[in-house]
Amino acid sequence: MPAPGEGNAQPLTGIRVLDLSGDLGVYCGKLLADVGADVIKVEPPGGDSMRRTGPFMDDAEPPENSIHWRHYNTNKRGITLDIASDAGRALLRRLAGNADVLLESFRPGYMDSLGLGYGHLSDGNPGLVYASLTAFGQTGPYRDYKASDLVGFAMGGYMYVTGWPDTPPNKLWGSQAYHTTSNRAFIGILIALYHRLASGQGQQVDVSMQEAVATTTEHVNTTYNYTGESAVRCGFRHGGQFVATWRCRDGYVSITTNTQKAWDDLRAWMDREGMAGDLMDERYSDRFILRGELSSHIEGLIEAWTLTHTRQEITDWGQANHHPWGPVATAGELLDNEQLWDRGFFYEVEDRESGRKVVYPGAPYKLTGSGWRFVSSAPRVGQHNRQVYCDELGLSDGELQDLIAAGTV
């Protein structure tokens, strides 16, 4: 793996992106920057509100100490601009004239009201790919609804099937709806750029958080469409009930019994230790019985047995017998995981503010050519104003100072 900042051109080298997005799209901008795009993060003067999102580094000063901001804005350059002002709108039009992609997550109609919508900016740059990420899309009866990650997860259909059968629907940890939307936007942008290679034309990419989440519900929608049956929350089990997570002596372990051999091997191991109960009876040979009325009885026997073993004992035995069994890792264990470090997923960078080593996560893929690479830490507020406005856009030093004094930059 090349050292950070070294190596050949990346897949999106030469592609310039204006990233005006908030929480909904900031990860999309990072994905583009991580594979070589020149992503310019456009913040309001004084800094983006995401800089106030914790956790925070104790030895760095606000607004440069948000770990949240630093993670989602690596490899980007940063400028400040008030796009609601006349001068700010004029500057954004000039910047968009030389951009390949514009990424935004404002409410539907807002950019149009400023004269900065796709129809306005594509007039001066027909090849522009204009990605708009919103809660429910640019059209439809919900287009003006407000939504958070929580609402996106709920109205996308995922929350209803997450949790336990006897509890209200639950939310997954973190901003999963936002991440899913950014992932889908990343794909849409790449498709639009590929289309531009053949046609020379850009287009608007309209991404709905609700639709992005709805695509992740696996069998839930399909099953209902064809059978009329709603999926139920399965708690520690997968929907198919052949994958489950069990308490053991030192935490939790996931055991997949999606084949007859895996189920037979599990109950045989329990039997050798005198803990299989009646699971060796012929009626339990049909692993589909796990779906039936005896599931609670089976689960009670399995958990009584797993509590006598450690996660590693169960994992080692399962893997040795070619079954996909594994421990549930804590955050600390994930950071210390030898597999992730060996493959270069985690890497250390010296923090510019404190001088200490900071660990960053990398990409979940490897390319034989030049792919993902860490090039730079997240930008400070307005760090690249002079570089972008003066060196690249042609403003004089005096013009930049006047814009700063007016609160435009």
Features:
single chain; 409 residues; alpha/beta; Rossmann fold; formyl-coa transferase, domain 3; 16 helices; 11 strands; disordered N terminus
What does this structure look like?
With 409 residues, the chain is α/β, with parallel strands linked by helices. The protein has two domains: 16-216 and 365-405, Rossmann fold (3-Layer(aba) Sandwich), CATH 3.40.50.10540; 243-332, formyl-coa transferase, domain 3 (2-Layer Sandwich), CATH 3.30.1540. The protein is built from 16 helices and eleven strands. A six-stranded parallel sheet has the order 3-2-1-4-5-6. Strands 7-8-9 form a three-stranded antiparallel sheet, covered by helices on one side. The chain has a two-stranded antiparallel ribbon with strand order 10-11. α1 packs across α7. The radius of gyration is 26 Å and the shape is elongated. The relative contact order is 0.14. The model is unreliable at 1-6 (pLDDT under 50).
In CATH terms, the superfamily of the largest domain is: Crotonobetainyl-coa:carnitine coa-transferase, domain 1
Which of globular, elongated, flat, extended, rod-shaped describes the shape?
Answer: elongated
* Helical/strand content category: alpha/beta
Please state how the strands of the largest beta sheet are arranged side by side.
3-2-1-4-5-6
The Rg value, from CA coordinates, equals 26 Å
State the separation between the terminal residues, measured CA to CA. 39 Å
| Low-confidence region ranges | 1-6
Please provide the count of β strands: 11
Assembly level: single chain
Number of helices: 16
Helix content: 25-40%
The CATH level-2 architecture of the largest domain is identified as 3-Layer(aba) Sandwich
CATH class of the largest domain: Alpha Beta
Give the biggest beta sheet.
6 strands, parallel
On the 0 to 100 scale, the average pLDDT is 92
